[in-house]
Amino acid sequence: MVEKTRNSFILSDQMREYFLKIGIERNKGSSKSGHFPTNVHPYYFCMIMGIAKNKNGNPQLMTKDMVDEWKGDAAKNDHFISGLTFFMHCKRHGLVTDQTSDRVLKQMSVFFSNTSNKGFSTEGYSLMNRFAQGGFEIIAEELEGITDLADWFSLYLGLLAE
Length: 162
Prior knowledge:
Blueprint: H1 13-20, H2 40-52, H3 72-76, H4 78-92, H5 101-111, H6 122-142, H7 149-161
Helix pairs in contact: 2-6
């Protein structure tokens, strides 16, 4: 089932189940080497994989709540993450080499929230969620059955570099 657009990051039930086997926050999972400190971390790694491999997917059903802004360590780098995702948005609209700054400025108001300095618009969340789902599809296929965080990171980085 495809998740309807929402104004938050989407860590689908399928994604959450996969990463809970490693461990997220208080749910320690099977990993002996550590766990993800927040739900945002696996979401971010999926999104980065989707961006790197230019893979989009349709976000799947999410029955639990998810945050709408970067948390934990990701919050310290939110400007870099937001810049990267906004670049992908502009690239999709053919504005990467555009010298007309007002078109880029107009897209900023389309991509980012006009009510929060940390949030995104529906279109912004949608783009990130599609990349996160696409990245997860790659991860789930290529890193199936990996439940130790250190092993997962090692294999993830190798896959990202391919």
